[in-house]
Design brief:
This protein has 874 residues and is mostly helical. It has 45 helices and 7 strands. The strands form 2 sheets. It has a 5-stranded parallel beta sheet with strand order 2-3-4-1-5. The termini are far apart.
Length: 874
């Protein structure tokens, strides 16, 4: 069927290709329902590009578990690339190499990837990697995807959320209009109204019906036969083939991937190649990789499924057995593909052998969800395996589950592994599994369980003569101490672990990395410079060895240290790098935790809309582990409290989490929020003070506990102030009555809300400066409190109003325009501003135009200068 009603889409794609040729590359998501004609549109576009444009294509396949980097293997074959083999998990180097090859020489390149809703995680990571860097290249990446509501769509939304908005756009391929369907049906003498009514204009169904109607294999179309005709259309085409050709088609239907003729020859004999040509001639198969390609695939996946499902079960199983045998004889064959055929052939021994290998390959490439599915398949057929082998499978499955945030599954699998090792009397593995259960329990929000498992693990390992595992057990206790704010315990066990793994007999860089992480974080308050150096050493080890989880921990802890030391620029830089690392390595657990840290940081910096977006993304993900949700819950509940919005559900979830957690850093955040709510009249003051006292009882460092004293001061309680001058400088100044000094320190730290709170202790002008800042931030509930304070201080203040020189929003800028102005002042580009605020570059342009008009400025620089003059940018 000819391409119809797609001229606007083609024009748009051609204009984007011209922009790419000029050095403005883009990712395009060609989206529509199954059968909408996305592939046909992409093919038509690829066939009409200028002669100097290089065209490459690949496709994702509907395997039960997708092959890692499947479409990129197609592309590498077409381009005749010899890619670097991924070793030691260093597959980022491969991504960089692919991008270099795609952009080498500045030649315009069109890259088409079909059906990314079926993509494996590694493929999505590579698209994400390219998408974040594509804007200044001559590359146009067109990816087709279904837009139905499936888990694949959720993954696509996450992919697009991690690519700067200016780097990508979506083009929707709509169904055919009723007029178009009537036109096509009329050309074959068919009932167009009935076809449109039944298909809704779906291009695939329409084309199948129209192209097959009137042939010897199909009767003329009518409304009553429509569902059966649609279902039988593919089989009808197959019926015109002779028996030999149908044998080849049946063999081909077992492969949801492009396949070589040699596969079909191995199954059907030497005449298979001619049969494939016949299948292509009747429209069921197409050459893969364009005209002249040496591979074949079904024109439509639904056609392949129709053929495969028509086979008798025993025949279908036999074909998969032959396909498996073919791939077993080829060392370069994909293990994931062999697992697919083994599963369909119900070959239990092959599944047991191959699925763990496929899981390991997927995990090494960062495709952790695919690894989970392979482990699940292996475990489902592990009944005849030894207890030791099954225990290893459970351990691998638990590890992959925990990386993707499936903590309940991880704990269940680890518990199963532990039971098997106990039955075997394997003390070394029992101790190591107890240590892992300690970690998993902590991530699930069970601090009591984490402590109990951690102590038991060390007790067992000290009797097992297993120094490497014992070192990791010590490091786990060090981590638990660090998380509880117990620097002495963290340092004691951390140094024990370091001493063991740096001895002559043991070299375990992953344990050393883990222990350095703990010690560096624990000494944050007492030795900040050494803390930074130690965490940098841990991060370097993790990155050098490809220890993905350890690297994520190092990023997380390094950012935490910088936030606590009020080095906010450094903290934001670390979080930006860390979140990007986790996104590229499919480390959802750590990504979500760092997004919560980022939300807390942005809250302090007064970038509340950005903070809300970052926190909401985590809170909306109900699969995120309790621990990873907590920082985002704190940030979001704080923002809603200050804005006068309901936050009861968030507070309830925080309280539930704290039922099993006795850590200063968690309790202090909750206590500070409750104290702020008590100050605003939203809860009982005595309840808030009790929470502050409980948090203070867990803190042994004045600097760490400074904010407890600050919020106690806000509630006019003096008993919780730090002793001496060892606490935070801004808090000490506040407690000593030096409000202007405190405000100046918070201003230097770019913390406008805390600046305003410090000013509330000041003179009349300071009160109005505080009020103006709070109004600019949108802190509605706090503004009400501040106005009441002004009225209590003196009746005349309430009518005087702020002086123009101290009015923080004298220009009448909206909250979002204030956000844009702050980023302009930081020297950010429009694209960077859009990425920060989660809006398009066009929206940023509109905001900047409005800002220039309101500030009577002719340039961005003038706008920033005027903003500073008006004291908008405190």
């Amino acid at each position: 069927m000819r391409l119809i009603e797609r001229a606007p889409n083609l024009d748009h794609l051609q204009s984007l290709l011209r922009e790419a040729a000029d050095g403005s590359g883009r990712v395009v998501l060609l989206e529509g329902e199954a059968g909408a004609g996305k592939s046909s549109l992409a093919a038509a576009f690829a066939g009409a590009v200028p002669e100097d444009t290089r065209v490459l294509s690949g496709a994702c396949e509907n395997f039960g578990t997708a092959e890692p980097l499947g479409p990129w293997r197609d592309i590498a074959r077409q381009a005749r690339w010899s890619l670097t083999r991924v070793t030691g998990g260093n597959w980022i180097a491969l991504f960089s190499e692919v991008l270099d090859l795609l952009t080498d020489g500045g030649r315009p390149t069109l890259l088409v990837i079909e059906d990314i809703h079926w993509a494996d995680d590694a493929t999505l990571n590579l698209i994400r990697y390219i998408g974040r860097r594509i804007r200044h290249t001559c590359l146009l990446l067109v990816a087709t995807a279904r837009n139905d509501d499936t888990p694949g769509q959720t993954r696509l939304r996450r992919l697009l959320a991690d690519i700067p908005p200016a780097h990508w756009l979506r083009i929707t391929v709509p169904p055919l209009s009723k007029a178009a369907v009537l036109e096509l049906a009329d050309s074959k003498g068919l009932d167009g109204e009935a076809i449109f009514s039944a298909t809704g204009g779906n291009a695939y169904f329409v084309s199948e019906l129209v192209d097959c109607a009137g042939s010897d294999s199909l009767p003329p179309f009518n409304r009553d036969q429509l569902p059966a005709t649609i279902r039988d259309a593919v089989l009808a085409r197959a019926d015109i083939l002779d028996e030999t050709d149908r044998e080849a088609l049946w063999a081909a239907s077992t492969s949801p991937d492009a396949f070589a003729p040699e596969l079909i020859e191995a199954i059907c004999g030497s005449t298979a190649r001619a049969s494939l040509e016949a299948c292509t001639a009747c429209g069921l198969l197409v050459p893969a990789g364009g005209k002249g390609g040496n591979l074949f695939m079904f024109r439509h996946e639904i056609a392949r499924q129709a053929i495969e499902q028509s086979l008798p079960p025993l025949r279908r199983r036999a074909l998969h057995e032959k396909a498996l045998a073919y791939f077993r004889d080829r060392p370069e064959a994909s293990v994931a593909r062999m697992v697919h055929h083994a599963n369909e052939a119900q070959d239990m021994s092959a599944i047991s052998e191959l699925a763990p290998k496929a899981a390991a390959d997927a995990g090494r490439l960062g495709a952790h969800r695919q690894a989970m599915r392979h482990y699940e398949l292996a475990l489902a057929h592990a009944g005849d395996l030894s207890d030791a082998t099954r225990a290893c499978l459970y351990e691998g499955y638990a590890f992959e589950c925990h990386l993707t945030g499936q903590m309940e599954r991880a704990i269940a699998a680890q518990t199963s592994a532990l039971a098997l090792y106990r039955a075997l009397g394997d003390i070394r593995h029992v101790g190591d599994n107890l240590r892992w259960l300690s970690r998993l329990s902590y991530l699930a929000g069970d601090r009591k369980g984490a402590d109990a498992f951690g102590r038991e693990a060390v007790d067992v390992l000290e009797q097992a003569a297993s120094p490497a595992e014992l070192a990791m057990g010590y490091s786990n206790l060090s981590q638990l101490g660090m998380l509880a704010g117990d620097a002495e315990t963290a340092t004691l066990y951390g140094e024990r672990a370091i001493a063991l793994v740096t001895s002559d007999d043991i070299a375990r860089p992953e344990v050393l990395c883990h222990a350095l992480n703990n010690v560096g974080t624990a000494i944050c308050w007492r030795e900040p410079d050494r803390a930074r150096q130690t965490l940098d050493q841990a991060l370097a080890i993790a990155l050098d060895h490809g220890f993905q989880e350890h690297a994520a921990r190092a990023f997380t802890n390094r950012a935490w240290v910088e936030i606590r030391l009020h080095a906010f620029d450094a903290a934001e830089d670390v979080l930006t790098r860390g979140i990007a690392y986790c996104i590229e390595h499919d480390l959802d657990t750590w990504r979500d935790y760092m997004r919560g840290e980022l939300a807390e940081l942005l809250t302090v910096l007064g970038r509340w809309d950005e903070a809300t977006a970052a926190a909401q993304a985590v809170v909306d993900n109900q699969n995120a582990p309790a621990l990873c949700r907590y920082p985002s819950l704190v940030a979001l509940a704080t923002l809603k409290t200050r804005r006068g919005e309901p936050s009861d559900e968030l507070l309830q979830e925080m309280a539930k989490f704290l039922e099993n957690t006795f850590e200063f850093q968690r309790l202090s955040a909750h206590a500070a929020l409750v104290a702020e709510r008590a100050w605003l009249g939203l809860c009982d003051r005595e309840e808030a003070l009790a929470g502050l006292r409980q948090a203070a009882s867990l803190c042994s460092d004045d600097a760490a506990g400074s904010m407890i004293g600050f919020w106690a001061h806000i509630l006019e309680e003096t008993g919780l102030a730090p002793d001496g001058d060892d606490g935070d400088a801004a808090v000490i100044a506040t407690l000593r009555g030096r409000w202007q000094e405190a405000a100046d320190i918070w201003t230097d730290r770019r913390a406008p809300y805390l600046t305003a709170l410090a000013l509330l202790d000041g003179d009349n002008d300071a009160l109005y400066r505080a009020l103006a800042t709070l109004e600019a931030l949108g802190a509605t509930a706090v503004v009400t409190n501040a106005k009441e304070l002004i009225r209590k201080r003196g009746g005349r203040l309430a009518t005087r109003g702020p002086r123009a020189s101290t009015q923080a929003n004298a220009a009448g800028l909206t909250t979002r325009e204030m956000d844009v102005l702050r980023l302009i002042d930081e020297g950010r580009s429009n694209a960077e501003i859009g990425a920060r605020l989660f809006v398009s570059a066009k929206t940023v342009d509109h905001h900047i135009s409005s800002i220039l008009a309101k500030l009577n400025a002719k340039s961005r620089g003038q706008a920033a200068a005027e903003g500073r003059r008006l004291r908008l940018l405190q």
